[in-house]
Write a structure and sequence with these properties.
Layout (H helix, E strand, L loop, with lengths): L1 H19 L16 H8 L3 H9 L8 H5 L19 H13 L5 H7 L4 H12 L16 H8 L10 H5 L18 H12 L10 H8 L2 H13 L7 H7 L2
Length: about 250
């Protein structure tokens, strides 16, 4: 019950922050994706075998997915490309549709998805979701402070920052709809994404949630959060700390 009450308070905090945030009220929808029963079913039943074939498709104008994100989405060739392996299928589908609809801007991605149907996007999302979360190399000398762990599991009420774990899960696994898995994500990509949210360069987050949070975090906090989640697949679970902080 204590966890549920905490989660409910966090949701209320997000809602109040979004209502109060300047520029969000009356703005265009951040995404055109409507999670209808039909959309849920299509993504749920996406065919990963078809997605595996789509990953390799290359044309004169468009690179294959694996050229940038690596085979099975596990080894991006440059830090600016995200790891896709193990990502929540619904999240990947939404991002691909947002690129197609112009709700998230990236010329290469827009060109890559413009000819794909929703069923093909769902298949590609299913393929990446079926892959194991990769292990990311980090500098062992870089440390994550207890203050940053407080943000992960408890948040910061003074800054209206809810715990990262309340949305992304205790182990960074994400949620069923529009909350991504962030465990095993590239450090530099994580940091750049948070910077883009803070600068309003990325605006396809529902209710502006990540923009509000990113604007409240320091550069050091973002760097340490990126490091923490990059290491999450291989470091010990912090269940006891999670439970203690919610008491």
């Amino acid at each position: 019950m204590g966890v549920l009450k905490t989660m409910n308070r966090n949701c209320l905090t997000i809602l109040l922050a979004c209502v109060a945030a300047p520029g969000l009220a009356g703005a265009e929808p951040s995404s055109n994706v409507a999670w209808t029963v039909e959309t849920h079913s299509m993504v749920k039943h996406g065919n990963p075998e078809i997605g595996a074939d789509i990953e390799k498709v290359e044309t004169e104008d468009v690179n294959a997915c694996l050229d940038c994100h690596g085979e099975r989405g596990a080894e991006p060739d440059r830090d600016k490309h995200p790891t896709l392996a193990g990502q929540v299928a619904a999240y990947t589908f939404k991002q691909l549709r947002d690129y197609k609809d112009g709700k998230r801007e990236n010329r290469r991605m827009e060109e890559a998805v413009e000819r794909l149907s929703d069923e093909q996007l769902a298949a590609l999302a299913a393929w990446y979701a079926s892959q194991p979360t990769p292990t990311v190399e980090t500098d062992p000398d870089d440390k994550v402070s207890e203050e940053t762990l407080q943000l992960v599991f408890r948040g910061d009420k003074k800054r209206l920052i809810q715990p990262c774990a309340s949305c992304h899960g205790e182990n960074g696994e994400g949620a069923i709809i529009d909350v991504p898995s962030i465990a095993g994500q590239n450090v530099k990509y994580f940091v750049q994404t948070m910077k883009d949210y803070a600068a309003d360069k990325r605006t396809n987050d529902i209710y502006g949630r990540m923009r509000i949070i990113a604007k409240s975090l320091s550069r050091e906090e973002i760097n340490e959060l990126a490091l923490y989640y990059a290491r999450l697949p291989e470091q010990p679970r912090r269940t006891n700390l999670f439970q203690a902080l919610l008491q």
